[in-house]
Automatic annotation (TrEMBL):
Organism placement in taxonomy: Eukaryota, Metazoa, Ecdysozoa, Arthropoda, Hexapoda
Name assigned to this protein: Uncharacterized protein
Pfam family for this entry, one: EcKL
Length: 179
């Protein structure tokens, strides 16, 4: 176990170095991270393509007030080089980061420009991403991290457990061409 820059104990593959830098656009410069609890989101062997971590992050105002807990998910690259090569992380990870950091915001902006009031928001919110701590590097390394909304804590229901009645109630007012 090591202690990361936020004071949290974690194993090497659960560590997210410089987490506060990744989240500054979400939490703001007037708040600071005071606690990070990290645990595996998936069991070993359940997801070979990445390491999925559950993050519970305590933040508070710079003056020590207004504490809140943020629930997020971190996606990191697999630790084994062989798995990194199988999943071609130098390509796939960069594309996933680009999807969340560029494509999703462009899709939302396009909808607003087209006058759509109820913007389709069917993707996990992205709170930050990087391929390396070295901002000049274009190589994905062990410090790559994609920080996303934790869909379980935000009330999202996995499709396989929703059931017919729930799904029907949520879709009965929609058609194939829109609502």
């Amino acid at each position: 176990m090591t202690e990361n820059d936020n004071g949290a104990n974690c194993t090497g593959d659960e560590e997210i170095r410089n987490l506060s830098d990744l989240l500054v656009n979400h939490i703001g410069s007037d708040k600071k991270i005071v606690e990070v609890q990290t645990s595996r989101l998936t069991a070993p062997g359940e997801n070979y393509g990445s390491i999925m971590l559950k993050l519970d992050i305590g933040v508070e105002g710079a003056n020590g007030g207004n504490r809140q807990t943020l629930h997020m998910v971190a996606k990191k690259i697999p630790t084994l080089k062989m798995i990194q090569e199988i999943f071609n992380i130098q390509v796939t990870y960069k594309k996933e980061v680009a999807f969340y950091m560029t494509v999703v915001p462009a899709l939302h902006e396009f909808q607003r420009e087209m006058g759509i009031k109820d913007v389709i928001d069917c993707f996990a919110k992205c709170y930050g991403a990087r391929i390396s701590l070295d901002i000049d590097s274009d190589e994905v390394d062990e410090d790559a991290a994609l920080i996303l909304e934790n869909l379980h804590t935000s009330g999202c229901c996995p499709l396989h457990s929703c059931g017919y009645k729930y799904t029907k109630s949520k879709t009965e007012n929609h058609t194939a061409l829109g609502d």
